[in-house]
Specification:
The structure holds two protein chains of two kinds. In chain A, the strands form four sheets. Chain A has an eight-stranded antiparallel sheet, sandwiched between helices. In chain A, strands 4-5-9-7-8 form a five-stranded antiparallel sheet. By secondary structure, chain A is of the alpha+beta class. Chain A has twelve helices and 18 strands. Chain B is built from 16 helices and 20 strands. In chain B, helix 1 packs antiparallel against helix 3. Chain B is α+β, with helices and mostly antiparallel strands. Classes of the chains: A alpha+beta, B alpha+beta. At the A-B interface, strand 8, helix 6, strand 10, helix 8 and helix 12 of A face strand 9, helix 7, helix 8, helix 10 and helix 16 of B.
């Protein structure tokens, strides 16, 4: 065997035989979907790469059952288009929908801004088929929304980053599309951020998504006020959207935010651009960290993380998920070389402040030297044992998972 | 030896070994198992850890138990052992209103949590029919559902973090927001075979601004089922969508006078919770669909007490069958919604073949059937017929693309049925997880896995 291969199986059988061979020969494999969330794992330049994008079919769609089954390599956009034909959707909210695959989104355990309203991607998975490291094909769950028959193995696979096996199929719940959606953009004057965040969280009408943004002007529209800007997404019936619009403006007024702009055109596309920004890099000179926690404290958490960027003489930009508590901070340097020089110091400083900070985007090879996973949880030993039982030869994405699993 | 060590560790008050005390713990709400060697009532996580270490040293299996309302033998000893009852760990430990989370002990009764947080405008969404008695810990073990999980999801969607005592007596904590494998998601629904949950952080949901409850009566089950499909197909996902057939409606009316029309072949109870602005439009749309599918009558509850009355009938349905039969067996299967008419016909046919009366009361919106098979426990022929019919219903569900348990779990009773849905490889993969958490199989042994399934030899 020589060189590094890129393997794109066109059938589950072929994929299983690739895994079985690598397992037998103890040859490591990098597993890849659309490669859109590559920044979430340390890079791997040595292993063969197994790509799932040729397994991209919709296997079953039963709109009356609110259920769909698809292969892992289908893009979120293609899957969404199929569902939209029957007025349905799945709120996965992952960046770069045209390239992001269903399997990759699930494997990465990506959680988007609408999860407080609709649930996490894991909550939509009714069943999965996985090919284990040794080539065994195993199904879990089923095609019904309620199913308590043994362990919910799909939960283990979602977020496992391909370290336990390769997802080849997912059976998912779908939802009816909202009748209407509307976005709001509001620049925040001084001393309004905390009040606006608190108002949004306590408001009787909850937005489908609410993001506080500072910077990201290349990706997201709107002008920052002294305390950034808000991007709000309202989804529901016509009458609900009208009422929510009134309520949002009243709440923002009470928070001291004078201007709230309504956006009615291309709302979905605009929201997708916000999602894209969460993992968007600026060439090879940026790194984006994510920290999850108490939604009430996203403002102070973001300020601390931006301070770290400033101390390291990098430009900091932030997005805070008001409803769920995630904070994304992108740190950018003027050029690639100085970025590479400063990145390790920045990484240490960020983890001193926020031990659980995770990298979600970074295209510079220096990523190999950064602590992309942050501090591992106390259950790391248990996780190591899980890995050892599923991939005893350690061939799947070796040393790229949390705690170098 | 075992008894003495347990008493030394926890005090005589917390340990039961008298046969008359133990016999209670050999049962759940349906099945019976073996007598435990001891029953222990811990008060803290440390107590549980000590119990596990002692049981391990004495090579006794451990069976965690909530209220014992399960129907599949999940909480009964299959081959003796120490039953850990959470009756004394029933407190709300902390409320985090900002994050809308409660930190609770496993013995807390489900409904008590909602009562404790209602003054803050919150509630705990999973609502199994047993919610007045069943505990959060038991709900976590079976990933319990309930009528309202159609829109709110089952227990697993509401568990944020767990504190667990493992098979060796060590304490660990999982959180869905932790980096790494979603151990929380695997522990929920694992029926006490992977660890013993000693506390949980659960998500609280805001009380809805507006709630409407509607009742539609149909001539037969087929037209009611078609209406269910049509409601979902119209893009309406109600908070609850429940069906009762003629047998159940008659029993319920005799018991509660809930106001159900007894001449109907099937009744749909529909609840929608949400924003007031949407309600009139939704009510009109659902009523229209019901009429188009031949609804004989339509009723909208106009007050909270009317809503409660309509629900009281549904929630008391199983109990009400006591009026028409000395015993009943509840089967629990889930099929794709569109297969409901076929599934219900097959259930009726199976019961008729075995000369049994069947009543159907179930979560139609989820396709989650609960046929109640009426019988007399004193007649061995009827008991055999119930077992046979129950098995045929399981196979029907599998044949229609469904599963052998929607929300009650597998426990002891259904473990052999696992092979109807899963291949040997599927089950062996599950067994790998068991091997990680409990290689000696001392936590709730003889549950979930059909006899003979082991973890594959690691190659």
């Amino acid at each position: 065997m020589s060189g590094r291969q890129r393997i794109v199986p066109t059938s589950v059988e072929e994929l299983a035989s690739v895994l079985a061979t690598h397992h037998r020969d103890r040859r490591p494999l990098a597993v890849e979907g659309g490669n859109t969330l590559r920044g979430m794992l340390p890079p791997d330049h040595e292993s063969d790469t197994l790509v799932t994008t040729a397994l991209a079919g919709v296997l079953a769609f039963a709109p009356d059952d609110l259920a769909v089954a698809a292969q892992a390599g289908i893009s979120l956009r293609a899957l969404g288009a199929t569902l939209a034909q029957r007025g349905q959707f799945i709120p996965f909210d992952a960046p770069q929908r045209a390239d992001a695959t269903l399997g990759g989104t699930l494997a990465a355990g990506w959680n988007g801004p609408r999860r407080h309203r609709y649930g996490r991607p894991r909550d939509f998975v009714m069943g999965t088929t996985i090919v284990l490291a040794d080539g065994t094909v195993a199904a879990a769950g089923g095609m019904v929304p309620k199913n308590v028959s043994g362990y919910d193995m799909s939960k283990l696979y979602v977020g496992s980053c391909g370290t336990l096996g390769v997802l080849v199929r997912a059976n998912l719940k779908t939802l009816p599309l909202a009748q209407r959606s509307r976005a709001f953009i509001a620049p925040l004057p001084e001393y309004t951020r905390e009040r606006a965040i608190a108002r949004l969280r306590e408001s009787p009408v909850e937005p489908a998504a609410a993001l506080w943004i500072e910077g990201f002007h290349k990706e997201i529209e709107g002008t920052d006020g002294p305390e950034g800007r808000l991007f709000l997404l309202i989804e529901g019936s016509d009458s609900f959207v009208e009422r929510a619009s009134r309520d949002v403006r009243t709440e923002m007024g009470k928070a001291g935010v004078p201007e709230t702009y309504v956006v009615d055109g291309a709302v979905t596309e605009r929201f997708e651009r916000v999602i894209d920004a969460l993992a968007a890099t600026i060439g090879e000179r940026s790194v984006t960290y994510r920290v999850s926690g108490d939604p009430a404290a996203i403002g102070t958490r973001a300020s601390r993380m931006l301070d770290v960027a400033a101390r390291c003489e990098m430009r900091g930009e932030a997005i805070g998920d008001v409803m769920n508590g995630d904070v994304y901070v992108r740190c950018t340097d003027a050029d690639t070389r100085s970025f590479a020089a400063k990145a390790p110091m920045l990484d240490d400083a960020m983890h001193d402040d926020e031990p659980a900070a995770r990298i979600v985007a970074c295209d510079h090879p220096v990523r190999a030297k950064l602590n992309v996973w942050g501090q591992p949880p106390g259950t790391l030993d248990l996780m190591r044992r899980v890995k050892a039982h599923f991939d005893p030869a350690g061939i799947l994405n070796p040393h790229r998972y949390v705690g170098a699993i | 030896m075992l008894h003495q060590q347990l008493v030394e560790a926890l005090g005589a008050e917390a340990v039961k070994t008298a046969p008359e005390d133990l016999s209670v713990y050999a049962f759940d709400a349906y099945s019976s198992g073996t007598l435990p060697s001891a029953v222990v009532l811990p008060e803290t996580t440390r107590d549980v850890a000590r119990i596990v270490r002692i049981a391990r040293a004495c090579e006794e299996p451990l069976i965690a138990r909530g209220a014992g309302t399960g129907l599949c033998g999940g909480a009964i000893p299959a081959r003796g052992g120490v039953v850990v009852s959470f009756a004394r760990m029933h407190r709300v430990l902390d409320l985090d209103l900002s994050r809308r989370r409660a930190h609770v002990q496993p013995g807390l009764v489900n409904l008590d949590l909602s009562k404790a947080v209602s003054m803050h405008g919150l509630f705990y969404a999973p609502d199994p029919a047993s919610q007045k008695t069943s505990t959060i810990g038991g709900n976590i073990a079976t990933n319990a559902g309930g009528p309202h999980c159609l829109s709110y999801g089952t227990t697993v969607n509401h568990v944020c973090a767990l504190e667990v005592v493992d098979a060796s007596g060590e304490v660990f904590r999982t959180d869905v927001d932790d980096a790494g494998y979603d151990l929380t998601g695997v522990l929920v629904g694992s029926e006490g075979t992977l660890g013993i949950v000693t506390s949980a952080w659960v998500r609280l949901t805001r009380l809805p601004e507006s709630v409407r409850v509607w009742l539609a009566a149909f001539g037969d089950i087929d037209s009611a089922s078609a209406a269910v499909s049509a409601i979902i197909a119209a893009g309406i996902v109600p908070t609850a969508l429940e069906m009762m057939d003629r047998v159940i409606v008659t029993a319920v009316e005799a018991a509660f006078c809930a106001g159900y029309p007894t001449d109907a072949g099937a009744v749909l109870l529909i609840e929608h919770a949400g924003y007031e602005d949407d309600m009139n439009t939704l009510e009109a749309a659902v009523a229209q669909i019901a009429r188009e599918h031949g609804a004989l009558s339509w009723r909208a509850a106009r007050s909270a007490s009317e809503r409660d009355a309509l629900w009281a009938g549904r929630k008391g349905a199983a109990g009400a069958t006591g009026r028409i039969s000395p015993n009943y067996y509840t089967q629990d299967v889930c099929v794709p919604r569109s297969a409901l008419p076929a599934a219900l016909r097959a259930v009726g046919d199976a019961a008729a073949r075995h000369h049994l009366t069947v009543g159907n009361v179930f979560h139609a919106g989820d396709g989650n059937l609960h046929p109640l098979l009426m019988y007399d426990r004193r007649d061995p022929k009827q008991v055999a017929a119930v077992i046979e019919t129950g098995n045929e219903i399981l196979q029907t569900a599998v044949d229609l693309g469904g599963t052998v348990s929607g929300e009650h779990g597998i426990g002891y009773e259904k473990r052999e049925a696992m092979t109807r849905v899963y291949s040997t490889d599927d089950l062996a993969t599950m067994a790998r997880v068991r091997e990680v958490f409990d290689p000696a199989r001392m936590l709730n042994p003889e549950k979930i896995f059909p006899s003979g399934v082991r973890c594959p030899e690691l190659r």
